[in-house]
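We modelled the chain as a single entity of 249 amino acids. Its sequence is:
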Amino acid sequence: MIPDAYDLKRIVRAHRARFWLPDLLEGFEFAPVWRFADQAQFDSDDVDALARRLAAGPQRLPHPETIFELADRSRTVRSQIVYARQRDDGIEAVWLALWRNPRRWTDIHAHVRIADGGIAEFAINPALRDAGLAEQSGQAAAAIVWRGLAIIASAASISERQIAPVRREPFARDGVRGWTWHQVTIDPARLRTASERLGGSHASPRWHLRRGHWRQLPDGRRIFVRQCEVGDPARGGVVKDYAVEARKT
């Protein structure tokens, strides 16, 4: 089995200019992949509590450029992909997905900035007609980063997988690199220990809402940053999860 992200690497390599905010996909075809196969455990309350605690501190990726791939259990989405890049003040990430039927990749739906201390804000692709789906995509991107980092740091059994040489040729021909990827399995014992060590609590959320606003980009464009929840998860915030469904536009 090869992560779906490798197929997307080929597409980005050949057609990056066609994506919304293509500069945010720079380096995608070379970035290491961390794949989470069990969405049920990924979305569990125990992972939520752990992510809330760890999100209150510095936000550090396992690699300067990291691809998170979450296998989706819905009828419409096969995989959610978050491409995250480390910045001095936190993490910058984009969200894309692979629909099941017909099988096709989305454009970037949302651009997310996650600051140290667990504060996130996002901008949505202005071409999307379904604002609800776009907003869910942005919030899902932040949740995937927070949960993925928490699992990798404290609650995972990680195995390195190699793409067989015989299967590399079509990817290599299209300029893709990085034949080792990481299969991340949530270890219940480690998760339980990590939660107990942090004094896991499901306290009421105390995040606040940041109103939607326009942002002026350096190139002169203006993008609308939709209302989102922000705050310090260590003080009771919640990392939300969203079932992202395809909708007709």
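As a brief sanity check on the tokenised model: The helical segments are 5-15, 39-42, 45-54, 131-154, 165-173, 188-197. Residues 5-235 form one domain.
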